[in-house]
Amino acid sequence: MTSNPSKRRKIVKKFVDEKKQIIRLGFPSISTKFAEFPIDIAADIGCEVIKEFLRLHRGLDFELVMIEQDSKVLNAFELKWKEIKDDLDAFKFQTKNGNLLQLKSDFGIECRFIVAETTWRMKPGTNQLNKQIFDAVGSRLHEELKRLYPNPGVVGEAYPVQIPKDSDLHIDEGIEQIIFVVSPNMNPSRPDPVSLGKAKELLKKTYHSMLNAFWELKIGQEYRPITTKKEKGSAFDILMKSASKSSFKTSAESSKRILPKVGGKGWTNVLLPYCQSPETFPKSEVYYYDDELVIIYDKYPKAKKHLLVIPRKYIDNIEELKKQDLQLVRALKEKGQCVIEKMKQENPKLFFRMGFHAVPGLRQLHMHVISQDFISPSLKHKKHWNSFTTEFFKDAEEIEKILEERGEIKFNKEYYENLLKSPLKCHLCDTKSIKFIPDLKKHLEEHWNES
DNA sequence: GTTCTAGAAC
DNA sequence: GTTCTAGAAC
């Protein structure tokens, strides 16, 4: 694909265009004003979530801007950020002392998206900033909010709304959407106060929702708060549905779902909730689901793109597969292939493998769909590397074949676990020897840049 | 599965 | 000084 010069030019041009146009999110500190959440803890939580978000999205085309009138709050965030920011580019998250609604006129920083706090009713004027926004946009804003979100808002969720093109906020400030967040309250004289413990958890959730909403809007997808129904008929749904010609299972099948035995260490069960109720997770975690399977983003991706395709029926691991599960394995493969095609459309440089770990660490059968760049901050240990680049990784193709021929799958645990200790070896070339993970990571970057 | 830590090895 | 390894806790 790199030999095609016109295609390559297109990629480069797209990159330059995106670089020119930086999409920004402007937001205030959440819950530290009227909600009386302790400032230092808020800064800890806010900065951690921001850090996690920047890690996940290492693009160059966006920026986060926190803008606050209260310099005590700003200082707390600045200090905390300095402490934890690691190698994350400073310019992707900046702080400013001023008014969120005058970022462009005061600082020349245009934010296409801004955040404002609200309460579960989403009524106008619940706080100062909120009031200024409703004053500036007029009654149309409240009507639009009511239309989009007829049900009460959930604390911790984000509710984006477009503002009219003829409003001053759009014309003067370049603001396109306001992401309203229902933030936790600790002030006993305001509605629904919660304890510090609960508020911490909810504040974290609020920052997550805010950033997820921003990200989805930025990449042109509609953000779906957990209280609203999933939309049908998008181009994406059509692409995914088109694959399931042979083995579409009805809900009668899924109702027969066998429940897993309780047990195992807590962390081994983390995949189960996704199978049982995928609809309760945000789009940022669940990529796709239907009656038969669910596709999620790996929480600790070991490459630029790393997803898990999981059957919704409970199957503990590959060794539990029987010949009658062949159709299921084929369905996983088929949907995995759809994901790959979609991802390759977005970035033609990517190429993929899909398959299973011979000895998985988590309960519930899961097929990895992983791009072969292996560039990711979550790839840290030899074990990670070897689990995807040695025989330990079993291609879906192979599993299908074994199941077809032998009707069951059995792997020697000890043999495969020992493979994880093998010396590091590049999966793309015969480099003499790479001793350390940091060297391997540098080497992988070179491969990526050359591709 | 991850994170954190201590001590060993390079 | 950096990186690895192994073990504990979650």
Write up what this structure looks like.
It comes from Glomus cerebriforme. Residues 273-379 form the HIT domain. It is found in: Nucleus. InterPro entries: Histidine_triad_CS, HIT-like, HIT-like_sf, Macro_dom-like, Znf-C2HE. Keywords: DNA-binding, Metal-binding, Nucleus, Zinc, Zinc-finger. By secondary structure, the protein is an alpha/beta fold. The chain has 2 domains: 18-218, Rossmann fold; 235-258 and 267-450, HIT family, subunit A (2-Layer Sandwich), CATH 3.30.428.10. The chain is 40% helix and 14% strand. It is built from 16 helices and 12 strands. It has helices at residues 5-20, 39-56, 71-84, 103-107, 128-137, 139-148, 168-173, 196-218, 235-241, 251-255, 272-276, 326-346, 382-389, 396-406, 413-419, 437-450, and strands at residues 23-27, 62-68, 93-97, 113-118, 158-162, 177-182, 286-289, 293-297, 306-311, 352-357, 367-371, 393-395. The strands form 2 sheets. The protein has a 6-stranded mixed beta sheet with strand order 3-2-1-4-6-5, with helices on both faces. Strands 7-8-9-11-10-12 form a 6-stranded antiparallel beta sheet. α3 (71-84) links the parallel β2 (62-68) and β3. The longest helix has 23 residues, at 196-218. The protein is globular and about 70 Å long. The chain starts with a helix and ends with a helix. The model is unreliable at 8-19, 227-233 and 244-257 (pLDDT under 50). The structure holds a DNA duplex (10 and 10 nucleotides).
